[in-house]
Write a structure and sequence with these properties.
Blueprint lengths: L1 H31 L4 H4 L9 E9 L6 E8 L2 E4 H7 L4 E8 L2 E9 L5 E10 L2 E11 L4 E12 L2 H7 L2
Antiparallel strand pairs: 1-2, 1-8, 2-3, 3-4, 4-5, 5-6, 6-7, 7-8
């Protein structure tokens, strides 16, 4: 009985050490996946001073969520994403294509281990694209793809429907 008791104590210590190791690994992975200074840097971009009112919805479903997008200082800010998870404005990459512009933005949530990858195009006064939202959990990553579409607006127009 005494051998079994010491074996059990050793097993408990090993399990505790492994648990602590996994917890530290998760914390390290969480911090190493954070945006660097370049992702948050302000600058200027070809889309600056554009404002759009949009509708977001899960891919293939009718629009559900009203949103506004602002391109300022080389960054994109989505009001809905700022409200839901405090997503800060994030640097965008844009290029000119036939008929308009394409843009890509990766935004990190400062309060969760979540990212949003925006891929969109602006043609004339309209914007459309997808947002891939993902949250890293302990053992897996959860995600969904949203679609957005909208049209050019003014800040005054956004303020009229925004509380």
């Amino acid at each position: 009985m005494r051998k079994f008791s010491s074996f059990l104590q050793i097993l408990v210590v090993i399990v505790l050490i492994c648990g602590a190791f996994l917890a530290f690994q998760s914390a390290y992975a969480y911090r190493s996946d954070r945006p660097n200074d370049a992702a948050q840097a302000k600058g200027s971009g070809v889309l600056d001073d554009l404002t759009f009112t949009t509708v977001l919805a899960p891919q293939g479903k009718p629009g559900e969520i009203r949103d506004a997008m602002f391109f300022r200082d080389g960054q994109l800010l989505s009001l809905e994403c700022e409200d839901r998870c405090n997503y800060p404005a994030s640097a965008y990459y844009a290029r000119e294509v036939e008929g308009g512009h394409e843009f890509v933005v990766e935004a990190w949530c400062p309060t969760k281990n979540a990212t949003m990858l925006w891929r969109g195009q602006i043609v004339g006064d309209n914007v459309s694209g997808t947002v891939t939202w993902s949250v890293r959990r302990f053992y897996w990553t959860v995600g969904t793809v949203l679609e957005f579409s909208g049209s050019k607006a003014t800040e005054e127009a956004v303020a009229s429907w925004r509380p």
